[in-house]
From TrEMBL:
Example GO molecular function: GTPase activity
Taxonomic lineage from the root: Eukaryota, Metazoa, Chordata, Craniata, Vertebrata
Protein name: Small monomeric GTPase
Listed InterPro entries: P-loop_NTPase, Ras-like_GTPase_Reg, Small_GTPase
Alphabetic keyword roster: Nucleotide-binding
Length: 62
C-alpha cells in the first residue's frame, strides 16, 4: 500500500505523500484472516495457529 519503496507510516525518499488505508478483514473463526494479513504485510507465513480474540460490544435493549 502507498508509494513503492516507502515503509508503512514513513514518507518515501522522493518526498511524495504516502497514502494510508484502513481495511476490515471479515470471516469465520479459524479461517486465516490474521495469517493472510501477516503474509501480505510482512511476507511471512507461520504454520503455527495463533488465535486472535477481539471483544465486540453488544447493544442491550431496555
Amino acid at each position: 500500500l502507498g508509494t513503492a519503496g516507502a515503509a508503512p507510516g514513513q514518507r518515501p525518499a522522493c518526498g511524495g505523500m504516502v497514502a494510508t488505508f484502513k481495511i476490515a478483514v471479515l470471516g469465520a473463526q479459524g479461517v486465516g484472516k490474521s495469517a493472510i494479513v501477516r503474509q501480505f504485510l510482512y511476507n511471512e507465513f507461520s504454520e503455527v495457529c495463533v488465535s486472535v480474540a477481539l471483544a465486540v460490544p453488544t447493544a442491550t435493549s431496555s
